[in-house]
Design a protein that fits this description.
The chain has 17 helices and 25 strands. With 595 residues, it is an alpha/beta fold. The chain folds into 2 domains: 268 residues, Divalent-metal-dependent TIM barrel enzymes (TIM Barrel), CATH 3.20.20; 302 residues, 2,3-Dihydroxybiphenyl 1,2-Dioxygenase, domain 1 (Roll), CATH 3.10.180. Helix 4 runs parallel beside helix 5, helix 5 packs across helix 6 and helix 10 packs across helix 13. The longest helix is centred in the first third of the chain and has 21 residues. 48% of the residues are buried. Bound molecules: 3,4-dihydroxybenzoic acid and magnesium ion. The site of 3,4-dihydroxybenzoic acid (DHB) has 11 residues, from strand 3, strand 4 and helix 8.
C-alpha cells in the first residue's frame, strides 16, 4: 500500500519536510495549506520538488467551514474553493480534504449540507478533483464518521467521498464495526494517528497529543483492519499534530513515522486482515535471551570481580574481555566512562533478525565492530544477534581460571535504559518491533528529580526484558539527576545470600535509608526477623498479584551505569518500579556524601 505523511507531522519549512519524507521512503504527502502559504516555492515548483524526491501529492488540506451555510456565505465559500482548485491543479493534487464545519454560520441541516457538498463536488469534477469529507471530532453539527457518511451518501456525487481519520473516530469511542458497511470506493482517504488516553477537551487532545501508530493507546490495527475490509486501497497517511514533533529534527521524526507504519501494517495483517498486504518485514523466531551485554568501562575488573564474576577470556581481535557468572555474560571494553554499548541477543536466526531490524530503519553495524550481524538502535545502543549455542565465545581466548568467588548470580533478568523525553516512544517501539517483544503496561512514578514515565516490554517467555524510562528533563542549572542512567539487572535465587557474599568481597552496594524499612513494615505485615534481614542488606521489596520481588543495587559506576540483582518469587512480573525513587534518592545521597 502507499505510505504517506502529512507535512504537518514534521518540523521545518516545506523543503525540510519534503526532504525528510522522501529520505525516509514515503511514497506521498498531504500538503498542509499553511506549509504551502509560507513557502517561497510556487505550487509548480513544489510539484517538481516532490517529483524529484519520488513523492506524489495525494491530498491538499484542510478546507474548512464550507457546508450548511446561508446563500451569501455559500457563494463566498465556492469562490474560495475555486481558488484552491487552481492551486491544486498546479500542484498536481487530485484530492481535497473538507473538514466538517465549526463555523457559527453553519446550521444543523443535513439536507442543506448534502446539497452544498454536491455542488462543490460538481465543480471539483469539472477540474478532475475529488472531495474527501472528514468529520472533525469537534465539528459543530457533524462530528462522527457515521454522520459524515450519511451526508456523503445523501449528496450522492461520484467525486464526493469520505476521509476517515483514526483520531476523530477513536477519540470519540465510536463503534468501528460500522466502517465495514461503507463501500471501500467511497473512502477517498485514510489518516492515521494514535494518541494516549487522556481525559480532556478533544480539540486540545488532537492538536497537541497525537502520536504515531504504536506510540499511544488506540487500537489502530483493529481500526485499520476495519477500513481494509471495505476494500479501501488508497494511501495509509499519517496525520499527527504533536508539540514535540513540531520542534524535532524532521529527518529523525520521518524515520520514526515510517517505522510505525511498517509495524502497524504487520500487526494488522497478523490480526487476520487478509486485505492488508504485509510490509516485507522478515518474520523471525522469538529471541532466546541475552547472549551478553557489552559495556565500556575504565576498570571493569574491580567491580565485576567483587560481584563474583569470573574473567573468562580475551577477545582475539578486539580489546574486549569476557566476564561471566552463571548465565550472565558481560563483555567489557576499555574506555573512559561506563556505558552500555551493545546487547547481544541470542536467536536461532541472527541474519533474519538483523535484516528485520534494518528493514525497521536501524543502521547496520559495521563488520569492524562485530563479526556477527547487528544494528544500532535509535538510542545508539548496538543490538547484535548470535546463535544460542554460544559459538561467539570461541572468539575469546580462554583466560587462566581465576579464583572463583561466585555470588549466586544465575543470569540477566533485564536491561534498563533511559530515553530522552522526545525519543522515548520511538525507542520503545523500535526495541519492541525489532525483537518481537510485547509492551507491558506503562507506569509513572514521582522521582526526586522529575516525574518518570516507564514502559517495559518482554518476549512471551520473559527471556528478554527491556525497561525504558524517560530521562528527567534537567531544566536549567538545577540538574542533579544522573543524565541517562542505564543498568543491568542480574538474577539470583537468593538475593540476601548474594548481597552478603558481595559485601564480603567489597562490592560497592547501595545503602538504603531506614525510613524505607519503617514504611515497608507499615505496608506489609513482615515478621521482625524478615525486616531485619532486608534492612541489614539494603534489600528492597515489592509484591504483585503473582508473588514477591527482592532486589538490591550497586552504587553508580562512572557517571551513569549501575547493577541490580533481583529475585522473582512465584512469577512476580514487574520491575520494582515503586522502589525506583528510593534508589534514585540513595544514589543522590551517595554522590552528596562521597562526591
Ligand atoms: O485540527 C484540525 O483543525 C484538523 C485539520 C485537518 C485534519 O485532517 C484534522 O484531522 C484536524
Ligand atoms: Mg484529519
Amino acid at each position: 500500500m502507499r505510505l504517506d505523511i502529512a507535512t504537518v507531522c514534521l518540523s521545518g519549512t516545506l523543503d525540510d519536510k519534503l526532504a525528510a519524507a522522501g529520505r525516509a521512503g514515503f511514497h506521498g504527502v498531504e500538503i498542509f495549506e499553511n506549509d504551502l502559504v509560507v513557502s517561497p516555492w510556487s505550487p509548480g515548483e513544489i510539484r517538481q520538488r516532490c517529483a524529484d524526491l519520488g513523492l506524489s501529492i495525494d491530498l491538499y488540506q484542510p478546507f474548512r467551514d464550507f457546508e450548511a451555510v446561508p446563500p451569501d456565505v455559500f457563494a463566498a465559500n465556492l469562490r474560495r474553493a475555486e481558488r484552491k482548485f487552481d492551486v491544486m491543479a498546479q500542484l498536481g493534487a487530485d484530492t481535497m480534504l473538507v473538514c466538517s464545519s465549526v463555523s457559527p454560520d453553519a446550521v444543523d441541516d443535513d439536507d442543506l449540507a448534502a446539497e452544498q457538498l454536491h455542488e462543490l463536488a460538481a465543480r471539483a469534477a469539472d477540474r478532475g478533483i475529488r472531495i474527501a469529507y472528514e468529520a472533525l471530532a469537534w465539528g459543530r453539527f457533524v462530528n462522527t464518521y457515521e454522520h459524515s457518511w450519511r451526508i456523503v451518501r445523501r449528496a450522492g456525487h461520484p467525486v464526493l467521498g469520505l476521509c476517515l481519520d483514526s483520531f476523530h473516530v477513536l477519540s470519540k469511542g465510536s463503534e468501528i464495526g460500522g466502517i465495514k458497511v461503507i463501500p471501500g470506493g467511497k473512502i477517498f482517504f485514510l489518516q492515521l494517528a494514535d494518541a494516549p488516553r487522556l481525559r480532556m477537551d478533544v480539540l486540545q487532545w488532537s492538536r497537541h497529543h497525537r502520536l504515531f501508530p504504536g506510540h499511544g493507546d488506540f487500537d489502530l490495527s483493529a481500526f485499520l483492519g476495519a477500513v481494509a475490509a471495505t476494500g479501501y486501497a488508497g494511501p495509509l497517511s499519517l496525520e499527527v499534530f504533536n508539540d514535540v514533533f513540531r520542534q524535532s529534527d524532521p529527518a529523525r521524526t520521518a524515520v520514526d513515522a515510517m517505522r510505525s507504519l511498517l509495524v502497524l501494517q504487520e500487526e494488522t495483517a497478523r490480526r487476520g486482515t487478509a486485505e492488508m498486504r504485509v510490509a516485507d518485514l522478515p518474520v523471525v523466531p522469538a529471541p532466546d535471551g541475552y547472549a551478553f551485554v557489552e559495556l565500556t568501562a575504565p576498570d571493569p575488573a574491580g567491580v565485576l570481580a567483587s560481584m563474583g564474576f569470573v574473567y573468562t577470556g580475551q577477545h582475539d581481535s578486539r580489546p574486549a574481555q569476557l566476564w561471566h557468572q552463571g548465565d550472565a555474560r558481560i563483555v567489557v571494553r576499555p574506555g573512559t566512562d561506563v556505558r552500555i554499548d551493545a546487547l547481544g541477543v541470542a536467536t536461532a536466526d541472527p541474519l533474519g533478525a538483523a535484516q528485520r531490524a534494518e528493514r525497521l530503519l536501524a543502521p547496520r553495524l559495521s563488520d569492524m565492530d562485530y563479526d556477527d550481524p547487528g544494528v544500532r538502535a535509535p538510542d545508539g545502543v548496538g543490538v547484535v544477534f548470535y546463535r544460542p549455542e554460544n559459538d561467539w565465545m570461541a572468539e575469546f581466548t580462554p583466560a587462566d581460571p581465576a579464583l572463583v568467588n561466585t555470588c549466586g548470580i544465575t543470569g540477566i533478568d533485564h536491561i534498563s535504559l533511559t530515553a530522552p523525553f522526545d525519543d522515548f516512544d520511538q525507542i520503545a517501539l523500535f526495541y519492541r518491533a525489532a525483537l518481537g517483544l510485547e509492551a507491558e503496561p506503562e507506569t509513572e512514578f514521582a522521582a526526586p528529580f522529575g516525574l518518570i514515565r516507564s514502559r517495559s516490554s518482554a518476549d512471551r517467555d520473559r527471556r528478554i526484558r527491556i525497561a525504558l524510562n524517560v530521562a528527567a528533563l534537567r531544566r536549567g542549572d538545577w540538574a542533579p539527576a544522573v543524565a541517562e542512567p542505564q543498568h543491568i539487572a542480574f538474577t539470583s535465587d537468593d538475593v540476601v545470600a548474594s548481597a552478603k557474599a558481595m559485601r564480603e568481597l567489597g562490592a560497592p552496594l547501595l545503602d538504603i535509608p531506614g525510613n524505607y524499612y519503617d514504611d515497608l513494615l507499615a505496608r506489609f505485615d513482615f515478621s521482625a526477623e524478615r525486616l531485619k534481614v532486608l534492612r541489614e542488606h539494603s534489600v528492597l521489596y515489592d509484591r504483585d498479584e503473582h508473588g514477591e520481588f527482592l532486589h538490591f543495587y550497586t552504587r553508580m559506576l562512572g557517571s551513569r551505569v549501575f547493577f541490580e540483582v533481583v529475585q522473582r518469587i512465584d512469577g512476580y512480573a514487574g520491575y520494582g518500579v515503586a522502589n525506583s525513587p528510593v534508589r534514585m534518592a540513595a544514589h543522590r545521597q551517595f554522590r552528596l556524601t562521597h562526591g
